[in-house]
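Hi R.,

Here's the input for the (2S)-2-hydroxybutanedioic acid complex you asked about:
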Amino acid sequence: MFSDLKQRPADPILGLTVKFKADSNPDKIDLGPGIYKDETGHTPILACVKAAEQYRIDNETTKTYFNSAGSALFNEKITALNFGDHRVVRENRVRTISTPGGTGALRIAGELVKTCKPSGTIWVSDPTWANHQGVFTAAGLQVKTYPYYDHDNKCLDFAGMMETLKRVPKDDAVLIHACCHNPSGMDLNPQQWQQVAALARDIGFLPVIDMAYQGFGVGLEEDAYGPRLMADTVDEMILCSSCSKNFGLYRERIGACSVVGKSASAADIINSVLLPIVRVNYSMPPAHGAAIVETVLDSAELTAQWHHELALMRDRISGMRQLLLDKLVENGVTRDFSFITAQTGMFSFLGIDAAQVQRLQDEFSIYLVGSSRISIAAIAPDNVDYLARSIARIL
Ligand code: LMR
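And here is the predicted structure with (2S)-2-hydroxybutanedioic acid in place:
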């Protein structure tokens, strides 16, 4: 059975961490995966999460099954976090299920589209998260791309994006990043969101919004502008969200897939199709991450603490953007890197070529994705000098 298998390359993001761990250089820096690190290079467990876990240990009375939708309280709370006090919620048009991380949400969303349209196509931004293509292909969809980032001018190619989206056939799906675009850090502004939403309504393509970084851009409410506007504009959409980054729950695997239907009864029908997709995949989602999130969001005190801790993470990252820029200049770099501070979220493209990315790895033990995406969240006052100096060298 297995003797004809050929070795496959390591995952372009997760594979970097394996190499990083094996590197003995004390100055090594892992700018690969989108993981928040504090100034000491540690990925902390948030205090609100620790408190919620303690609450769960003290109060949980059973480990019996949920169902394929997961915890009803989590689903209600995450819907409120993502959509706010939105009319689609008040009109009972949203059906949310908990999923194993944001990736699980995307896979289920992909399979729902595939179920509705067996020859379905989903359009993703060029560039996009390295796993989008694989997730949607595995769900049985064709994947096509629309222009998004202008590498030469280090900005959004909004004209190119709109030009392509205008030609997307009705009932194709279009994946849009809600905020903190991964990998470019360049987001749509409110006016651009309005144009994209109006196009989705006029053409009738299905928006599938990936919100993996709510709270890491400008703030929890501001970062949800796009999905909420979209829900105001179109009759049907899907929102996939993740608690990996904003609750720091990475390995607990907790996210959500919310589907908006035309009416409450249409949403019930969608839900009846969604649940069997989960059932044949993994039966039901894991409970621990959901229990933590719902405990935090159900307590005014823990929610306030979470907001504070999230703001600290967000502010530290944006501080590192400025510091990296300053250090590049200090180290004599004349190329314009000012785009780094115009972006939001964890990521930035350095805009260096593949050979230079490889040199950073081989000569300086600095690990970044081949596209030159760096995770700003791994930069700290202690390593920024070394990083800037190394970049200056390879330039
Ligand atoms: C990333 O883009 O680095 C993160 O979303 C981690 C992952 O799963 O790839």
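One thing worth noting: Residues 13, 33-34, 129, 131, 182 surround (2S)-2-hydroxybutanedioic acid (CB under 6 Å).

Cheers,
M.
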